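Quick bug: RHOMBOID-like protein output formatted oddly.
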Amino acid sequence: QGWRLVTCIWLHAGVIHLLANMLSLVFIGIRLEQQFGFVRIAIIYLLSGFGGSILSSLFIRNNISVGASGALFGLLGAMLSELITNWTIYSNKAAALLTLIVIILINLAVGLLPHVDNFAHIGGFLTGFLLGFVLLIRPQFGWMECHNLQPASRVKSKYNVYQYVLWVVALLLLIAGFVVGLV
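Here's what came back:
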């Protein structure tokens, strides 16, 4: 019944659970979708929900778990990896990082309440964090404007070396995590 790993993303345990998740999706998802487009964010959302379901099913065998929280944590994880990957383009780096970490910690603390599946939160967060390095990479500063410059002053590579390294490492860890989790 592998379909349960995906369908639980759209099931909720009541109206309040549904409203809380939809409110979170409005605040997190719209910002990301405006910057990176529907397709990338949809992939992160779906795979993060799936990753959260896998970790939850590995650690919680006797309880039922529903909700989009794993997928939402995936979007938070993707926001964090996007901030790290594209660090050079942010003007107020410390404030952005501190705000995001506080939001993540508050949400993880809420996961300690009874009947909340923190394994789905953690699995979704890790999946989204790794997917953010793969899907939310941006060209280095000045690359788009360099086409009007002289060849000697052009930026040689679209991405920095550390962006390539993070992309490869994240992709390998993501594949390994899904393979180990599913086996």
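Actually, after a second look the formatting is fine. Residues 127 and 177 are 9 Å apart (CA to CA). Closing.
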